[in-house]
Amino acid sequence: MSSNCVIMPREKLVDGFTKEAKEVWDHLLEEKPVLPYLIPVFLLAWILERWIISFSNWVPVFVTVWASLQYGKYRRERAMEDLNNRWRRHILCSQPSTPIEPCEWLNKMLMNVWPNFMEPKLVRRLLTSVQRRLKEKRPRPILSMEVQEFNLGTTPPMFGLQGSYWSMEGKQPVLNMGFEWDTNEMSVLIAAQLAGPLRGNTARIVINSIHVKGDLRLLPILDGQAVLYSFVNTPEVRIGLAFGTGSQSTPQMELPMFSSWLEKLFIETLNRTMVEPRRRCFSLPAVDLKKKAVGGIFSVTIVSARDLAKLDHRESRYYSNEKLANADASGHANSNGSSGSSGSSHGSHGSSGSGNRKPERFVEIQCEDLTRKTGMQSGAYPHVWNETYDMVLHDNVGTVHVNVYEKPRQNSVKYDFLGSCEIKVKYVDDDSTIFWAVGPEQSVLASRVEHCGKEIELTIPLEGVLSGEVTLKLILKEWQFSDGSKAVANYTPSNVIHMQQAALGTQPSISPYTGRKLRISAIEGRNLAPMDRTGKSDPYLKLFYGKLIRKTKTVNQDLNPTWNQDFIFQEVGGGEYLKIKCYDADRFGDENLGSARVNLQGLEESTPKDVWVPLEKIKQGEIHLRIEVVASELSPIPSQNGNDSGTHSIGDGCTVEIVLVEARDLVAADWGGTSDPYVSVRYGQTKKRTKVVYKTLTPSWNQTLEFPDDGSPLVLHVKDYNTILPTSSIGHCDVEYERLPPNQTLDQWLPLRGVNKGEIHIQLTRRQPETQPKANSSEEQQQPKLVPTPTGTSKLQRNTGKVRSLIRKAMALAEEDDTEDIRQMLEELESAEDERELSISQLQRDRDLLVAKVRELEQAMGGFL
């Protein structure tokens, strides 16, 4: 072992000497090409010296001295070259700028990799973003917009045609280069379904050319983990558009006015997002976890502000009207911090009419459509709030806008604008998050957090003013991913991808529905905005999912309403959002109390999602929702006598008995502030009515009506009776009785729809004649009877019956001239038809599978026989 330990270093040493000798020899051959021809001369001289003049050894001495000199010269040249390289690297790292250098090599490489690598990758990313924006920001005159073709052409953008160079701004290195993209080979085709008078027509819009030219700036941040990029000034933009109808294969009509409008819109978007000092971020993660973030939640704490200064009076008046048109309406209800504090006389520059009262200042933060406002602060700087708000993201990147205002006088509608700033946040593929903002003198403030739950603090100067800065704390609470997993504080997200189609055991279908059902519970709201003169509101919710719209009851005079209503929806694939809108019910037009979007991706059975959703497009308010997947298996339904019954026979003497007991809090339809109510009951094609109770808003009928039980829809219409004038509707409701066990009574107060208030008290019983019990074994009597899961033909029959029932209900509503409910019934009918098509496709797949199994069985039996 010891000999090996000695030999191996000696061999390495010999190899090193051999390698170095070879390098010296190659260097000598490069400097002295005639050296190989001199070797025979030296050999001849050595032979003569050795054999003729044997007492002399001048030739070996001469060769040794010459080789030593050449080796020393070689070592000195290598040392000088190494020092020169180090000096060049030092100059490159320390010099503030570099000379302008051409970028033809970069553009040549882009031409080669653009058609088959960069263009398809950009198309996939841009197509997803454009489709989402068209779906969310669809104009009112358009029913739907769809991208039918998206192609950027074969001409790539060019970089640094006039050269590129590095410069130093403060301590931040900046790469400057030109950008130019001029192509007429692109094709972006958008089909728009028109509404209103042009309903049914299709407009086709194609973008066939684009020209963008400007100067780019690239700023490496966070030690090379990301690069910020932006335009130095507003770039030149030209867009070519063509229009056509649905019958044209290629739109041909040019509209220069619309092209100018689109160019202006594009320029405004660039100025708002990536023209200095606005910058976008390109992350450079070392690890890619292959997760796509679709939403997130983070909290923003407004800590303090200092050194605030007013703008010019004219600019201040302009900002007061543009940015805070509705601030007074909800400012007093949204202040959850200290409303005022004592201080010095700083800021006493208010008007003479305000006396000794100091101006009050507050901060407004906005993320997408979600806006929140702090309480008022006055006195000496710094103003301290320490108020925390949760912000919601609907993508993997977002921007938080911070605006500071001053209210100079009491009862003044004008707010002086004191400055603004913004913080941007982005999810990185290595599961980290980057925050960045504009620092002093347009420098960069950037921070990176490795996981959720870590807090960062930024002091950001206000833009557009002489002085002022705001201190914020940000904590990332949660990221939601498209595979259903999520990352929260102190939690490692699961890498198991939940695929809805795999969970169902079916193959993907062309239908937008996944086959599952969602139960969405509208539980309650809190801190809603007051809209009435009483300082209260009459809130109700509308839920939009897929093609369906559902509405809760109205809660009168309450800013913290409780609904506790459940709604069932067919789950829609493709990342469909649940949209909720909150309204204040008024006689002459409902007022908006805010809206929100909820991401429903990644829902799993037996794992309900319980969330408080902040309302957007308003200053305050939250809605409590509970969302869960409805299990496909139905539980046993116990009857009153202890037996289990999941189905109810129809016909054979079965009847539906409904007792119309009373009503309360009805709408006043007469001039005297009362009504003459009666109830019109529609059961399928049969129509009956109660007596009229005159001049009351709390009638009592106590009438019993019976109908043969054939499964038809049961609709109640409460009307006001008039002798001469036609009757007027004061509400209606649907009675759901399909799951009611036989010979049991449903005693319930039902809220009336179509009006702001009113409820009706009913008692409903499904009468079934008594039959002789069959002799069953004790085991069969003890075994619960489960409702069978409808599959195959039974499910198709159920869907067909549902379509027929919805048609009957729509016909009944048509006779009552209730257009709103007719529209809702038609939407449900369309959803039922989609469900029926899904059932048919499932039956076809089951049939093909059964035929294949039968053939396999025939082959196996044939071989056996």
TrEMBL record:
One of its GO terms (biological process) is lipid transport. Residues 770-800 have a biased composition (Polar residues). The keyword Coiled coil applies. Residues 815-860 form a coiled coil. GO terms for molecular function: lipid binding. The keyword Chaperone does not apply. Residues 328-358, 765-800 are annotated as: Disordered. It holds the Pfam family C2. GO terms for cellular component: membrane. InterPro entries: C2_dom, C2_domain_sf, SMP_LBD. CDD domains: C2, SMP_SF. Residues 99-285 form the SMP-LTD domain. Residues 276-438, 498-613, 632-750 form the C2 domain. It is found in: Membrane. This is Plant synaptotagmin. It comes from Ceratodon purpureus (Fire moss).
